[in-house]
């Protein structure tokens, strides 16, 4: 068993800065690094980490992702004067060079690879590298968005080669789209890239069509590129968690990575001038903790953006505290995602449905239509009458088809709420835990089903639950929102009943070791599923090695499988 959290930081990476006026680049300052490190010291976190020295990334390592021509261009900036530096910088979008940029960019690559080595070598369990310049925008032949070398993309290539990894997950929670990473791995099924980003229907930098949800990867890499475009600013804890629950985590668990890399930008946090989002530092503790369940905990976080110094440094601390295993702080504020977030999430899910088993059984019409329609109808009606149409009996003249659609919409959301739950827990207990944060709308509404009615529904299935006021509160909140979308109890009741009894969740029963027949049956199933199950599909060694490791506790079976 390995333990410990690595921290990689070297003051030398603060030794470059913008030398001239440029409103695009002014926010990328050395204090981003030093203030994060100061904050870590303030919370006594530095001394709890395993300190690793940085090194320079080698030319060979840099060329895992970048061309030798581009490497030469960057190398050449070391000796340029200000005028020449300005000229080189102007060849790229939102980039500045300084005589120390090349040295620091090499250290940023090397620091990232040191982290990967110490995690893969088992010296530590996980860790974080605090680096400058960031990496995720840079491309084979170009610097971009403050980024010189693509630290995380290089790390993934490096880990594939040095450790023979077949499945690496990159989670890019920076608020900008890491298009550089997308370009590198677009056709590569062994690297699953996930990014959420401020998009605003392509009105936000880097203004790319390929940042939208329908960029799912190409050729063999189809299904391995996941974009969650945020079309509004102000996304917060609930929206981020909903994206994790409904997009990233299901797919990531199906993918079953051997290593997780985080493009750990904090411009997605509250107060950041670029992101304009609202996630609190505590949110990053939750995001981190979820990812620690993957890849046996092998996780490397690498700093990308983050321009509000206080928000940035508090969020860095939250991430490292969580990596160290500290308790996760509670989240405050609105716990339901906004309509725009739900729309984005549903669009990504729809786009990825052909590629992932965990999405395959979703039977809903494209949610874009439905929610946009509901939203528009509500807005129009509210403007006219001051009341929300969907709560009024006859305000919206729905035909049967539409009613059915809404029913499926609700059913889908109930399934979503319950998705990550082991069957041993009651549905209601789970809803209480998740605090109903996965509901489709956050608008306050009149209650159509009161606590009394609710109690009677619930008590039919589990008398014990009725006593738990907390559970009821969550359910009540949930029902209130559902009521807003659709008035008729008659549709809701049997459906809620079904959900509460856990109808669609299989009961696995008590755990018992697999019998020989079961192992062979599973083996056969794996053969069949291999074609479309990601976890099997992208493992070259697949059957033999995975099967034996699954059942290695039982040597009798091992021989049979081999
Ligand atoms: N008008 C990172 O967060 N903004 N890079 C350009 C153009 C550039 C962000 C605005 C933002 C780059 C690593
Ligand atoms: Zn960013």
Automatic annotation (TrEMBL):
UniProt keyword Nucleus, yes or no: yes
GO cellular component, one term: cytosol
Family matches, as InterPro entries: HDACs, His_deacetylse_dom, His_deacetylse_dom_sf, Ureohydrolase_dom_sf
Compartment(s) of residence: Nucleus
Keyword Hydrolase attached: yes
GO molecular function: histone deacetylase activity; histone deacetylase binding; hydrolase activity
Pfam families attached to this UniProt entry: Hist_deacetyl
Superkingdom to which the source organism belongs: Eukaryota
Domain Histone deacetylase: 28-322
Main localisation: nucleus
GO biological process terms held by the UniProt record: epigenetic regulation of gene expression; homologous recombination; macroautophagy; negative regulation of transcription by RNA polymerase II; positive regulation of mismatch repair; spermidine deacetylation
Keywords, sorted A to Z: Hydrolase, Nucleus
Gene3D superfamilies given in the database record: Histone deacetylase domain (3.40.800.20)
Family of the protein in this entry: Belongs to the histone deacetylase family. HD type 2 subfamily.
Name of the protein described by the UniProt record: Histone deacetylase 10
Gene of this entry: HDAC10
């Amino acid at each position: 068993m390995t333990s410990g959290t690595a921290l990689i930081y070297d003051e030398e990476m603060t030794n470059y800065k913008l030398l001239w006026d440029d409103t695009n680049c002014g926010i990328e300052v050395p204090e981003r690094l030093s203030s994060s490190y100061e904050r870590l010291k303030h919370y006594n976190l530095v001394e709890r980490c395993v300190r690793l020295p940085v090194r320079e990334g080698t030319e060979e390592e840099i060329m895992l992702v970048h061309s030798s021509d581009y490497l030469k261009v960057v190398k050449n900036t070391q000796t340029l004067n200000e005028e020449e530096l300005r000229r080189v910088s102007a060849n790229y979008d939102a980039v500045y060079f300084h005589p120390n940029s090349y040295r620091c960019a090499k250290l940023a690559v090397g620091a990232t690879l040191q982290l990967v080595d110490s995690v893969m070598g088992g010296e530590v369990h996980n860790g974080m590298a605090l680096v400058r310049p960031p990496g995720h925008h840079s491309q084979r032949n170009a610097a971009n968005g403050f980024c010189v070398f693509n630290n995380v993309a290089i790390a993934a290539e490096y880990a594939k080669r040095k450790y023979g990894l077949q499945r690496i997950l990159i989670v890019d929670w920076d608020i900008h789209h890491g298009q550089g990473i997308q370009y590198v791995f677009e056709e590569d099924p062994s690297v699953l890239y996930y990014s959420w980003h401020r998009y605003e229907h392509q009105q936000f930098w880097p203004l790319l069509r390929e940042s939208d949800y329908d960029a799912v990867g190409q050729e063999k890499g189809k299904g391995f590129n996941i974009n969650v475009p945020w079309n509004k600013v102000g996304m917060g804890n609930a929206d981020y968690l909903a994206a994790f629950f409904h997009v990233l985590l299901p797919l990531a668990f199906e993918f079953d990575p051997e290593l997780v890399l985080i493009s750990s930008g904090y411009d997605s946090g509250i107060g950041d001038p670029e992101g304009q989002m609202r996630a609190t530092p505590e949110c990053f503790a939750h995001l981190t903790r979820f990812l620690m369940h993957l890849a046996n905990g092998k996780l490397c976080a690498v700093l990308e953006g983050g321009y509000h110094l206080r928000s940035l440094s508090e969020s860095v601390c939250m991430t490292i505290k969580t990596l160290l295993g500290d308790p996760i702080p509670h989240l405050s504020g609105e716990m339901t995602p906004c309509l725009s977030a739900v729309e984005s999430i549903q669009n990504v899910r729809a786009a990825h449905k052909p590629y992932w088993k965990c999405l395959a059984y979703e039977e809903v019409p494209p949610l874009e239509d439905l929610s946009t329609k509901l939203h528009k109808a509500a807005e129009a009606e509210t403007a006219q009458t001051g009341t929300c149409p969907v709560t009024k009996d006859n305000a919206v003249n729905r035909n049967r088809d539409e009613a059915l659609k809404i029913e499926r919409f609700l059913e889908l959301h109930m399934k979503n709420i319950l998705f990550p739950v082991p069957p041993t827990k009651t549905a209601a207990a789970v809803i209480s835990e998740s605090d109903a944060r996965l509901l489709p709308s956050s608008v306050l509404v009149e209650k159509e089903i009161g606590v009394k009615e609710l109690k009677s529904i619930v008590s039919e299935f589990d008398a014990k639950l009725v006593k738990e006021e907390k559970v009821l509160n969550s359910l009540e909140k949930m029902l209130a929102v559902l009521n807003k979308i659709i008035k008729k109890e008659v549709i809701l009741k049997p459906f809620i009943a079904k959900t509460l009894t856990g109808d669609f969740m299989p009961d696995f029963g008590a755990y018992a070791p697999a019998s020989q027949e079961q192992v062979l049956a599973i083996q056969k199933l794996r053969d069949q599923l291999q074609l479309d199950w990601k976890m099997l599909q992208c493992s070259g060694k697949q059957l033999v090695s995975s099967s034996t490791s699954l059942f290695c506790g039982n040597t009798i079976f091992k021989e049979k499988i081999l």
